[in-house]
Amino acid sequence: MQQDILINWSPQETRVAVVEHGAVQELHVERTLERGLVGNVYLGKVARVLPGMQSAFIDIGLERAAFLHVGDVWQRQEGGEPPAQLRGSQPPVPIEKQVFEGQALMVQVIKDPIGTKGARLSTQISIAGRLLVFLPQDDHIGVSQKIPTEQRDALRARLQALAGPQGGGFILRTNGEDASDAELGEDIAYLRKTWARIKEASLRLPPQSLLHQDLSLLQRVLRDLVGEATQSIRIDSREQFHQLMAFGREFMPAAAAKLQHYKGERPIFDLFAIDEEIARALGRRVDLKSGGYLIVDQTEALTTIDVNTGGFVGLRNFDDTIFKTNLEAAQAIARQLRLRNLGGIIIVDFIDMGREEHRQAVLDEFRKQLARDRVKTMAGGFSQLGLLEMTRKRTRESLAHMLCEPCAACQGSGQVKTARSVAYDILREILREARQFNPREFRVVASPKVIELLLDEESQHLAGLSDFIGKPISLQSESAIGQEQYDIVLL
User: Fold this and answer.
1) What is the DSSP string of 369-428?
2) H/E run at residue 258
3) pLDDT at position 466 over 90
4) What pLDDT is stored for residue 179 in this prediction?
5) How many CB atoms neighbour CB 430 within 10 A?
6) Rounded distance, CA 175 to CA 131, Å?
7) Which end of the chain is more exposed for a tag (fewer CB within 10 A), N or C?
8) Helix (H, G, I), strand (E, B) or coil at 163
């Protein structure tokens, strides 16, 4: 699968598009003021310990306290064993015996704050390099599970020899399988130097301080997104091109060789109509080439995707029409998951298929498309209700959560009360206030549509209420407020 990476840089925002065969497959956005926290190391301060939840809240200087679960508290193991949270073979020591309120604790963010949840932390520090991941608190030497089993023992022994007796553990990343001893040695030296700088900062800085910040999106493009299939990496900023080239030549020369400075007059994202693709990725409806369409609804707990035939009537029979629509939908859904960066629980409602071989073919195609996703996914079979349940690891905010905010009028519900419903709410509120207070006059401040209704169709009810409470009711139209909003002023 041939791949091109386009980078649009501005001082306030970096946007990266991964394009395969002319179609955008992934979008990554990093804003200077909203940069992600995963990988950052902080000197935190324990705010609360909750034995009942086996967790603690840690103040690391963010708006919300971060969350530390007992399973993410590092415990030293004997005999070079990996830490308990990596092994899972024995229950951890209760959290109240490991941390206490007011304690200064070095922690690393393993999951960004999402929605109303604070960041998730670990006390097992890991520093990612180009070829290796460094575990400074541990002596475990590991190899990526994506590397074939028969090669792991030899690679582990080789890495053990290169690491030497200085302490600390390493995990060989997939892209380090064919690295030379010199390249691995350079990565080891870089990671040890980074850890020494973190330790020095932890002794010098006060709690709630940032000790180490993970790589920027531009640098992570070279580290994480570039592979053998990548043909080119084009960036539209001369300054960032030279900085990224210097970084790449030092740590990732193979990736740096693919870097190109885009000098075209048209904006780089116009080459593949990426801005239009972003706009479509924020909508509920996704049209399929056959005439069918998807409806994508994202909530706090899960995402639902509904498949519809739409205007596709097929050429043979109804079963074939449904089958072809579902096959196309399977490909489109896998792409939308990557494009929108949807995570958590995902429920897909394919169109009901009567034949078992059709269901299996759709499931096989869907899993084949999911296998191309660099984020971990797991898809089950069809349930008794014909729904397909799956999960996709949630590593950062979805595209919609990053670029959008809830509507000020409907607060994200997608609908608002009718003007008549609001008018009746106002009449009830006036009656409630009249029983508690004795003002000279009630004044209603509401949206123009609500005020117009009270003056016209509901004028009789308004006059009747005024006579019943024995007080005048005046109306004031305010175009700046939403339809559901109103104020009742006591004069």
Assistant:
1) HHTT-SS-EEEEEE-TTS-EEEEE---S--HHHHH----TTTTTSS----HHHHHHHHHH
2) none
3) yes
4) 79
5) 19
6) 6
7) N
8) helix
* Contacting residues for 329 by C-beta, under 8 A, at least 6 apart: 288, 292, 294, 307, 350
Distance, C-alpha 266 to centroid of its chain: 30
Residue-wise pLDDT tens digits, 157-176:
888 888 888 888 999 887 77
What's the pLDDT tens digit per position in 65-124?
Answer: 999 999 899 876 544 444 444 444 567 789 999 999 999 999 999 998 887 788 999 999
Length of the chain: 491
Mean residue pLDDT of the chain comes to 87
State the DSSP code for 268: G
Strands 141-143 and 169-172: parallel
Question: What letter does residue 315 receive in the DSSP assignment?
Answer: S
Query: Look-up: residue for tokens 């990596």?
Result: 86
Q: What is the per-residue pLDDT across 120-162, written as a single tens digit (0 to 9) for each?
A: 999 999 998 878 999 998 888 888 877 778 888 888 888 888 8
Torsion of CA 467, 468, 474, 476, to 10 degrees: -140
User: Closest by alpha carbon to 59, among 97, 101, 94, 95?
Assistant: 101
**Look-up: residue for tokens 């541990």?**
138
| Per-residue model confidence as pLDDT tens digits over 399-438 | 888 888 888 777 777 788 999 999 999 999 999 999 999 8
Task: Determine whether 432 is exposed, middle or buried from the number of CB atoms within 10 Å of its CB (0-12, 13-18, 19+).
Answer: exposed
Cα-only R_g, the chain: 29
Maximum C-alpha span of the chain = 93
**CB within 8 A of 120, min separation 6: which ones?**
66, 67, 68, 69, 72, 109, 110, 111
Q: pLDDT band at 63, cuts 50/70/90?
A: confident
Confidence tier at 278 by pLDDT (50, 70, 90): confident
- What b/e readout covers 435-470, taking b as 16+ CB neighbours within 10 angstroms? eeeeeeebebbbbeebbbbbeeebeeebeebbeeee
Structure tokens at 406: 């809830």
Cα 442 to Cα 134: distance, rounded to the nearest angstrom:
69
Q: E strands within 168-299?
A: 169-172, 209-212, 230-235, 259-261, 285-287, 293-298
- Cα atoms in the Cβ-side hemisphere of radius 13 Å centred on 158: 17
To the nearest whole percent, how much of the chain has pLDDT over 70?
Answer: 95
Strands of the sheet containing 230-235, edge to edge, are: 23-31, 13-20, 3-10, 230-235, 259-261
